[in-house]
């Protein structure tokens, strides 16, 4: 198995959205502000007891504006701005790198930024997604509708295959399974371990062909 990649470093003020074009950053920052209010309310009064109307009021927007950014209340937990960031960083990796190695470098960069700015939010969202039944179901829907497509597109581009190629899709599901297994184990351990290192170790295991 290859060695774990070293996490990239950046200043504490670094925002992952700074990697994206200005127009996209503005929209995603509005989404983030709404999500921050939602997560605060979930922490204070519980997920089930919090309504969309309460989140909208806290964010000083109308419920109709809320639904322009989030289709459902569940999406304030499940969705984040990191898929487009990961896609951009992944596409910038050297073309000679195999897909798994390109992804390892991508996650080393993105996780470093997430941990600097959003560690507490990552813990809260991960816990909610794994403990609230409605969120567990929505997470799987979101994976199929969003993250899976993002990874299929990126892997297809890198390998010269169609994003609908069954082998690309199987490969992507394997990647997502590795990421989810690391997340569950991290949370089961009290979210005190090094999640980026856990993810990288398992991606290296995947790259080696899962030798047991």
Automatic annotation (TrEMBL):
SUPFAM superfamilies, alphabetized: Homeodomain-like
DNA-binding region, residue range(s): 51-70
Pfam families in UniProt: TetR_C_14, TetR_N
Domain HTH tetR-type positions: 28-88
GO molecular function: DNA-binding transcription factor activity; transcription cis-regulatory region binding
InterPro entries, alphabetized: Homeodomain-like_sf, HTH-type_TetR-like_transc_reg, HTH_TetR, MftR_C
Organism the protein comes from: Actinomadura macrotermitis
UniProt keyword list: DNA-binding, Transcription, Transcription regulation
Entry protein name: HTH tetR-type domain-containing protein
Highest taxon of the lineage: Bacteria
Keyword Repressor set for record: no
